[in-house]
Amino acid sequence: MTDSTTPDMLSRPDGQSLAFHHTAGFSPGVIFCSGFMSDMEGTKALALEKAMTGLHRSYTRFDYLGHGQSTGLFTDGTISRWTDDALAILDNCTAGPQIIVGSSMGGWIGLRMAELRPERITGFVGIAAAPDFTTRMWEDMPEEGKKAIEETGQWDQPSEYSDEPYVITRKLLDDGPRNFLLNGKINVTCPVHLLQGMKDDSVPWQTALQIQEALMSDDVTVSLVKNGDHRLSEADDLTRLILATERISSKG
C-alpha cells in the first residue's frame, strides 16, 4: 500500500499542486472525494483504501486546492475549482472506469464529475451527499456572519468537528449556483447508492430523497441510517460504506 506520509503531487496550470495517493488494481477503480475542509487522511478515506486495496481494486484519494497536503489557499477555493481539481485527478492519475465515493461536499463534486465525465464514471456512492449546500449555508448564517461576508468577503464559522473554523467566503457562495443540481434533473445514469444518517445536523436526511428523485438513473438505492450522524464514521457505518462501494463496483 502507498506510504500515507508522502503523497504524489499533480501540477496544475496555475502553479498549484494537488496531493494524491493512487494504488493500481482491478477495474473499475474507486476515487474518494472528501468534504468541506476535510482531507484524504480521514477515517472513511483510509478505511475504504484498506478495503479496496485488500480486494486488489484500484483506489485513489486526493486533496483539493487549499486542503490537506495540497498547495494553495483554502479561501481561493470554490465548488467549480474543487470540481476541476477532482477532474484533473480523474483525467491524469487514473485509467479506465471509476466509481466515485463522495462525502458531504464531495458528494456534490462527485455528482458533477459524473455529469461531466459520463464515459469514465460508472457508479457513485454518496455519504451524506450535500449538493447545493451553499444555499443552506447562507440561509442558516447568523446576521453577524452575513455582515462579515458583506464587509470583508468571508466569515469564520465555528466548527463542531474541528478546532479550526469553517471559513466561508463570498467567492464560495457566489460560485455555488453555477454547480447547482437540485433545481432540475441530475444527468447521471450510472448506478447510485446514497448513505444518509437521519440524525445528521449538517445535511437534512430528506436531501438523499431529493437527490434520488432528481437523478436520471433508474438504479438508485438510498440507505437511511436511523441513528447515523453527518460523519457516518462508526464501525458499522464503515462496513456499510465498504459493502455499498463493492456492490456498485461489481456493476461497473
For the CA atoms, what is the radius of gyration? 17 Å
CATH topology (fold) name = Rossmann fold
Strand arrangement across the biggest beta sheet? 1-2-4-3-5-6-9-10
Structural class: alpha/beta
Low-confidence stretches: none
**Given this structure, which CATH class is correct?**
Alpha Beta
**Distinct helical segment count:** 8
Shape: globular
**H-E order:** EEEHEHEHEHHEEHEHEH
Name the CATH superfamily assignment. Alpha/Beta hydrolase fold, catalytic domain
How many individual domains? 1
The count of β-strands is 10
Mean pLDDT: 96
Largest sheet: 8 strands, mixed
Distance from N terminus to C terminus (CA atoms, Å) equals: 23 Å
**CATH architecture level-2 label:** 3-Layer(aba) Sandwich
Strand share of the residues? 15-25%
Helix content class: 25-40%
Q: What would the keywords be for this entry?
A:
single chain, Rossmann fold, 8-stranded mixed β-sheet, two-stranded antiparallel sheet, 35% helix
Q: TL;DR of this structure?
A:
The protein is of the alpha/beta class and 252 residues long. Helices cover 35% and strands 23% of the residues.
Structure, explained:
The structure is a single chain. This protein has 252 residues and is an alpha/beta fold. It has a single domain (8-131, 187-251), classed as Alpha/Beta hydrolase fold, catalytic domain (Rossmann fold, 3-Layer(aba) Sandwich), CATH 3.40.50.1820. Helix content is 35%, strand content 23%. The chain is built from 8 helices and 10 strands. The protein has helices at residues 43-54, 79-93, 105-116, 133-139, 143-152, 170-175, 206-214, 235-251, and strands at 8-11, 17-23, 26-33, 57-62, 98-103, 121-127, 154-157, 166-169, 192-197, 220-225. The strands form 2 sheets. It has an 8-stranded mixed β-sheet, with helices on both faces. Helix 1 crosses helix 8 (235-251) and helix 2 crosses helix 3 (105-116). The longest helix is centred in the last third of the chain and has 17 residues, at 235-251. It is globular, with a radius of gyration of 17 Å. The two termini are 23 Å apart. The model has no long low-confidence stretch (mean pLDDT 96).
